[in-house]
Design a protein that fits this description.
single chain; about 130 residues; mainly alpha; Glutathione S-transferase Yfyf (Class Pi), Chain A, domain 2; 7 helices; about 0% strand
């Protein structure tokens, strides 16, 4: 639940306000600080145990791995895990698993559009447009 209700949505919001809706310094700061708080919680947990749910690798680690792998995009930092050495250690452990390497390759053969023009914004955020537009 920590990942589904905390790390995941707040990471998404932080990334959105830092990269798409960039005219709100307040929103960017608010969500980035909240993501940092989530990393503090992860750091404290991973100081005690090798994995999020305890001594064994579980679905919790799988769920968090994807978001932690994008931390540089979320926090806009070249060394984003530096303040959290236990999270960094955990990430390297999970990231080194063969299944993680395979998961990282998913979608690399698909040509995704990268510019944020009106067509892209409408596809990403249809709720921001009238239904008949």
């Amino acid at each position: 639940m920590f990942i589904a209700s905390g790390l995941s949505p707040f990471s998404g919001q932080a990334s959105h306000f830092a990269r798409v809706h960039t005219d709100s310094a307040y929103a960017t700061n608010r969500y980035q600080r909240e993501v940092e708080r989530h990393y503090d919680v992860l750091e404290a947990r991973l100081q005690q145990k090798p994995y999020i749910a305890g001594d064994d690798y579980t679905i919790a680690d799988m769920a968090a791995w994807g978001w932690v792998g994008r931390v540089g995009t979320v926090l806009l930092n070249d060394a984003p895990l530096a303040p959290w050495p236990n999270v960094s250690r955990w990430f390297e452990t999970v990231d080194g698993r063969p299944a993680a390497a395979r998961a990282r390759q998913v979608g690399h053969d698909v040509p995704f559009k990268t510019d944020f023009d009106a067509e892209t914004l409408k596809a990403l955020f249809p709720q921001n447009f009238p239904k008949d537009a």
